[in-house]
Amino acid sequence: MRINEFFSSFIKIHILHHCLKEEIYGVWMIEELKEHGYKISPGSLYPLLRNLEEKRLIRSRTEQMGKVKRKFYRITPKGKKELTSAKIKLKELIGEILK
Question: What would the CATH number be for the domain defined by 5-97?
Fold first, then answer.
């Protein structure tokens, strides 16, 4: 599946949802999205994460794990607010579409 603007929005909501539940990291998120039918490469995911961080919807911290540095992401208060708003709009849209 090609990641276009439409699916990019779904992926961003999915990322915020998981960042609310727990800290996430890129490789884990790629696998999680794969389980839902999204095939996304690191070259597509990491710019999305960077964009969400620039918008202050998530924040990151870097941890050294042996020879590997891993970036962990967590939702911010602004991100929680945006996610809540998106859920309300999604619920309304899904209700209308599935009538």
Answer: 1.10.10.10
